[in-house]
Amino acid sequence: MRFDLTDLRLFLNILETGNITAAASRSHLSLASASARVRAMEGSLNSALLERNRRGVTPTPAGKALGRHARLILQQVERLQDELADYAQGFKGQIRLLCNTSTLSEHLPEVLADFLVSHPHIDIDLQEHPSLRILHALRHGSADIGIVTDAVDASDLQTLPFRADPLALLIPAGHPLEQHDSLRFSQTLDHEFVALAATSALGIYLEEQALHAGKRLRIRVRAEGVDGVLRMVAHGAGLGIVPQAAVDRWQGTHGFRAVRLADDWADRQLRLCAVDFAALPGYVRELVEVLAAPR
What we know:
By secondary structure, the protein is α/β, with parallel strands linked by helices. The chain has helices at residues 5-17, 20-26, 31-45, 61-83, 101-107, 109-118, 131-139, 201-212, 226-234, 244-249, 282-292, and strands at residues 50-53, 56-59, 93-99, 122-128, 145-149, 158-164, 167-172, 182-183, 192-196, 218-223, 240-243, 256-261, 269-274. It folds into 3 domains: 1-89, Arc Repressor Mutant, subunit A (Orthogonal Bundle); 92-165 and 268-295, Periplasmic binding protein-like II (D-Maltodextrin-Binding Protein, domain 2); 167-265, D-Maltodextrin-Binding Protein, domain 2 (3-Layer(aba) Sandwich), CATH 3.40.190. Helix 8 links the parallel strand 9 (192-196) and strand 10.
């Protein structure tokens, strides 16, 4: 049985994406090369690792076992890199960090940039996901650390405070709701919204909250990013909901009022999560310390 690190990283990418084509792209391999590596792994084990279907691939029991061991092996390699960083010419560590929309757009860019400048041998794989998906990834070992809202149950993981992250309702000038200083989300659902992209973690969350209230979000247009929502609401396209931090940094024309959402779920606190902070490689723990520092 001969597997190299590229094989193991490729196989983990296949498990995470459920698709060999997407995993090949993430692994910087051609589809033909990735397929050949999978066939070689299965031939070496004399056992199928993946079940193919129309929607992609799923791991067999042998594939699940390989995935568990591959994660452990790659974690050990990264710890080796950390301990021998002074001697590891060109060998770079990678931190897998998952977060929600507002964390990605409002709270991380400058912090991560400063960390990367001071740690030239470290890369960060930063991805946006809803909080529940982040918890799932942490529990299954496909991420090192995550940042989630306190609306989800992370009691089986270790957590640290990160930031307060309340949501604000944007009301354009002349709108029927303009005179309100505070509203519940349910009071807005008969009006049209400028929404975030369908793949946005916050966009998904708000549509779920509307369904919990017994209605669908009336989406007039989707904006690609928080700034897009702010700009469209400022020009009167509809209501919007964004992190208060985005309103605070907004430099554009204020053709809207930002008011408090009275729902408990909108008064969010963000938390930093991991399965076991102490078991993380040293360079990941350094990032945790930076993120958890008071601001």
